[in-house]
Amino acid sequence: MRMTSAVPTDVMDVAATPDEPAPAGRIQSLDLVRGFAVLGILAANMVAFALPGSAHRVPTMIEDTFAEKLFWLINLLLVDGKMRGLFTVLFGAGVVLFLEHARAKGGKGWWLQYRRLFWLWVFGSLHFVLFFEGDILLDYAVVGAFLVPILLIRRIPNWGLVALAAALLIWDGWAVTTYFDRNHQKELAVSTGTADVQTAHDYADWREEFESETREALEFDRGANFIEMAQDRHKYDTPISRTTFVIMAYGAGYLGLMLIGAALYRAGFFTGNWNARKVTLWSGVGIAFSLVVALGLGLTIWQSDFAPATTYFYTYAWSPQYRLPMVLGMAGLLVVVTPKLGPTWLGERLSAAGRMAFTNYIAMSVIFPGLFHGWGFGLIAQVPRWGIWLFVFAGWALMLGWSKPWLERYRFGPLEWLWRCLTYWKLFAFRR
Prior knowledge:
mainly alpha; 17 helices; 74% helix
């Protein structure tokens, strides 16, 4: 059995070009997977909206209950890093798709793509400063600038892109693990009674600073108004410093995932050219592998009683690497089911949410922080982790509810339209 696409490849996904964004000219699996990812990433972001500082990573910092720990574990298994990884893979596929269509039309695809990335950086900077320090748009714009020249080298085969991705992911894993292992080793020495006086003193100072930062963040988030929160974000981390940090700290991991997405697109993965049974089999294996590893790490953290350095170490060390099989597995299963799921009520709404992923992603950061922070309803640190999922479900209902009706009336999501106009410096028709 082979997955097939009813759309000729020469007219696929005109969202990357200035042509009409007709649904018949799109790769439906990309829209559907993107819709799934934008819903999923809300489940990760909502925890950051609802809990201050490091409390969204260490569940016992606000309330030490079994329910808090259990729902932390559920997020670790099913959400944390997976949706961001899926988005990153899709971004890489989207960049190569944009370049191919621009080249086919005789345009300077690299120049348009860099303009597109510049405006994404602007949007991401505003999102980062005004609404959410966990923004990914700025990160993608920065790393995308390194991806474009690699993709312009047409002679690099898909296996070359994957090999480069593997090297980058290995480097990223080693660097991140080395960074978080410092405090982890101190914590281990203290917990086992083998720490010398200086190590014990250093760890005590670090832990006090760690916990006080979360207490201060909670107090600030409860009392600060919108302008004060934006000023505080800009005070400690500007878009320029964030850009430098992305390049120096974790850009390699992002670039590796983007290269994998580009290679998969070139190989026909998203257009249904791979054997569906094999994709299903290996997707299941990949998802099972990542779940088993995540469960083992989660139980190790639980056994440590959520000691903060241990929690951070096992949360971040080699995390994009062991999550990658699950990321690709989710993408594979969604591609396989697209022909049947796509025409259904849910499939149509997931695809519409995917076509408006930019607008939906930003909209959630505008709506929900106002419910939790002091400048809004002040619910921060007052909703248990199981209750946070009620807000997630509400966000899913909004995205699934408004995206399809909007696209029936308008050609683009509002931010998608603005981004396109700025990229081409041309005013496109908005209403149908």
